[in-house]
Amino acid sequence: MSSSAFIYDFLIAGNFPLVTDRGLVLTDQGVLTRGTALGRIAGSLGAAVADGAGTAGANTGNGTISAVSLGSSAIPGSYVIKMTSATTFSVTSPAGVSLPSGVVGTAYVSTQIAFTIAAGATAFVAGDGFSIPVAAGSNKLKICNSANTDGSGMVYAILAETADTTSGDVEAAIYKSGEFNIADVPFGGTDTPTAHMEEARHLGIYFKAIHPEAS
Fold first, then answer.
1. Interval 137-188: pLDDT, tens
2. How far apart are alpha carbons 41 and 20 in whole angstroms?
3. In this structure, are residues 82 and 134 in contact, taking their beta carbons and an 8 Å threshold?
């Protein structure tokens, strides 16, 4: 966004450095206003499959995995979950990188993948696990909504200028870091900036409540 197009409003809420970029905003979202929180379509989920140490890769335990979704940093390939005990597990990305470990019965959330593993009547054993295949995504941007499972359920950027997507994909200016006024950052569904504060903070995006009359 050029300096001649600067818009005077209350979106910017502090002095944390603004990092700007351009991104392709997905079609059929109507007119998205400046300040809209955007997620990135990072991939397409396949069905999770048992990947245990038993016969034909079956698990000894009969617990289940559910509520699988991708984060904005997801990459294509297979995410591998391995039980390290009846109640704990490790997670490895398609790149072979170890992600934070998790606990059965507690929602697992990272910037790459999220899911919940529930215990069954037969306990898991070390070596049980699941594989989750992920196909490459378009990397296009759409309004962030935690109900999305393609990676756009997590914040990736803030729209820096109005984008009219009624006739097709639109290239638009985005902010990839900065401090932004909670009141001027719309999300999709029933999401609010408050619900996304922690994940956004890791990207250098901060949401603050400000009073326009004091600006």
1. 999 999 999 999 999 999 999 999 999 999 999 999 999 999 999 999 999 9
2. 19
3. no
Domains along the chain with CATH numbers: 12-41+138-214 (2.40.300.10), 43-136 (no CATH)
- With a CB cutoff of 8 Å and minimum separation 6, the contacts of 15 are 179
pTM summary value: 0.83
